[in-house]
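pinging the channel bc i need a second pair of eyes. not urgent but kinda urgent?? the chain im working w is below, pasted from the shared doc
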Amino acid sequence: MSETSTAPPGTAAAVDAAALAAKGDRLYIIGCIICGTWVLGPIGAVLVLWGILLLRKAERHGASIRPWAITLVGGFILIDTSVNFFAWGLDLFPAHGTALGSGLWIDYGRLVDGGYMYNYNSTAVGGVADSGEKSVQICMVLMAMPIKLAAAWGFLRMKQWGLQWTLISYWMYFACWMIYLSNMLLNFPLRFGSSDFGALGFWLLVNVPFLGPLFLLPYLHTVRRDLWT
């Protein structure tokens, strides 16, 4: 026997189920964003699981819930966007001048990307000294990631603009990745020849995770657009 029970619209049970679903949705979205901060990731994971449990409970009590595939895909987009925003934002914004920020990125340079190891914080804007890397950061942190974050929220809210801007932001993401990869390859000796893990470490630890979300593009182009109102 199915556990799902439905309540007539407008009844107290239906209102409670809808409120429960709204609370679960808020916790899920906030948790996904917090997961991308790295340090607060465990707290974000707890909020994500709590939100999912509340959504499942609300669904069993008759609340109207979006398809779970949309919830999971939208959550993945939020986490990926948050990771990119906070990671590169740590180098772009004044945090690069702190002991924690500079130490983190210089050690990252020693391990994977030598571009972060040499002349760090030596330019007028601070952070990584490679001008191509800094240009990609500015584009990603100040434009692409905020757009992608807002689009992911609209995507989860089943808004037509959310789906459209998710597609647009993903193509922007792809363009930034191509520029980023080209800049890395053009400075190959500096960026890979001086790091401990070299090119293999870059591909396994950085580029594959960075490229991974782009595999959602075929899915986003084939979803049923009538689901987004």
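so The mean pLDDT is 87. and Residues 1-65 form one domain. — does that match what u expected or am i reading it wrong
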